[in-house]
Every structure is written in structure tokens, then in C-alpha cells.
Amino acid sequence: xxxxxxxxxxxxxxxxVAAQGNNITIDPNSVSLTERNSWCNGQVxxxxxxCGGQVDANNCTGSDLTYSCLCAxxxxxxxxxxxxxxxxxxxxxxxxxxCITDHPDDRAGxxxxxxxxxxxxxxxxxxxxxTTSSASSAMPTSTMASATGSSGMSTPSATTNLAVKFGQDxxxxxLVAAVFAVVGMAL
Length: 187
What we know:
The protein is mainly alpha-helical. It is about 60% helix and about 5% strand.
């Protein structure tokens, strides 16, 4: 039973890592300069959020769609391709849209587009809330219940906060290695 779960988890994780390893490029001139500059604004804002506002480098150039993002806490780049509003996300979305357009009335071609272009889905502002909410997790339960109000939104668990913080500090590669190590010990 444990080995079946480990195999399933490993295959899912391998697919996830492979999907995030895509270095997707587009012709910058296929997108208006106004839109590229808007993409850069999102990139710079998201980098700042993922780095907790403490960056060594955070810039983006709309003319050629180049960027840099390095967090000051560990001098490394966060896994930007995982997040919405980043330049890798926008480039992925653009390439996906072009792929779909290039395959009209071609279900197999469009299915291939969906497999090839797996774009980020995480919300950086939610990751920021998760990492900063660890301070609020010390609040008494009754206060926490009133703090969440009637929105139904609950505070992420300390385990979730730790995983997000670990991923931000050490990058996805180290996080994946740690998960493999834990799974390997479980076997």
C-alpha cells in the first residue's frame, strides 16, 4: 500500500517538475509594448511579494521580455513559473493561446497544447498571506474565528506555512529533493 502511494506521488511530482522546467519563449513583438509593460508590472509586483519585499534584484524590460528576480533572504530566485501574474506565466499563456489558434478544429492538436503549456496557477498574494499568517496563528481560537469573519476563509495551517516558506527560501529543487528523501525513508 505504501509503495503504491509512493509511486503515485513520485509520478505526480515528476510530472509537476517536468511541466515547470519548460523554458517557453515567444516573439516579444507578437504582443503590444503596452501589454508587455503591463506584464512587467505584474512580474515586478509578484517578485516583491514572493521575496517578502526584500529583493537583491527585481526588474523587467517590456521591450525584450527579460527580467530578474532575486530574493535578498537567500540570494536565489523564487519559482516564478508557478505563479500567476509573472512573466513566465504570461509568456506561457501567450504561447498556449497561439498553439490553440494554430490548431483550429484539431482536438488532438489542442490536447497537445494543453499538455505542452502548463502555466502557473499559484497566487503570490495568497503565498504571502500564508507566510505572514504564521504570526497570526498564535491568536486564540475565538479571536481567530472573529478575524476570519463570515467569508469562510480559514487561516492556512502551520505545516502549509512551513512548506511555502521552505519553497521560497530554498527553491523548488530543494523542496522536491526533500520530498523524495521523505518518501524514500517511508519505503
